[in-house]
C-alpha cells in the first residue's frame, strides 16, 4: 500500500527578491498505519442524521418519531421510558435542577450589634 504523494508548498515574498518565506514541513517517513488514515476520514465526515426507525421494534416512524433524552428515536408505543429501557437518569437531573433553583439559606448564628 503506497502513501499518497503530497507536494510541498512554497510561499514567495511579495517583494522582488525570490527568497521563500516558509516551506511546508513534512515528515520524511510516510504514514504507513492504515488506522490513522481511517480515523482522520471519520473525523472529517459529518455526523449521520438521526435514524427514522424505532430503536426497539425497528418500525419506521418518519416525522412522528419521538426523540428521547437517552438519544434514541422511538415510535408512539415505545416513547415512554419504561417501555424502552431508557438509560437516561431522570431522577439525577431533577435533583440537580432542584438544588440549583433552591440554594441553601443559612441564618447568621450571632446577631451583630
Automatic annotation (TrEMBL):
GO terms for molecular function: zinc ion binding. PROSITE patterns: ZF_AN1. Residues 17-51 are annotated as: Disordered. Keywords: Metal-binding, Stress response, Zinc, Zinc-finger. Residues 38-47 have a biased composition (Basic and acidic residues). Residues 48-94 form the AN1-type domain. Pfam families: zf-AN1. May be involved in environmental stress response. This is Zinc finger A20 and AN1 domain-containing stress-associated protein 9. The lineage of its organism: Eukaryota, Viridiplantae, Streptophyta, Embryophyta, Tracheophyta.
